[in-house]
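Action item from last week, closing it out:
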Amino acid sequence: EGKSEKHLQVFIPVNKLDLAQASIKLQEISTALALKLPIEWQALPNNNLPDDYNIFTLPYKIFE
C-alpha cells in the first residue's frame, strides 16, 4: 500500500539480472502498464528521469 488507498506499490522479485537486462524487463512492464493505465502508473528506476526523480519509498503496508 502506498501513501493513499489509490496508490499501490508493487515490487517484482526476479532472479539476478544485469542492469541492461533489468532495464529491458522494466521497459516491457512499463509498456504493458501504459496500455491498461495510460496516466496512473510509474515504474522506477526510469532511465529517462534525472537521478533526483528516481526515488521510491518503502511501502506503508505489506499485503501477502
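Closing note: The chain has a mean pLDDT of 75.
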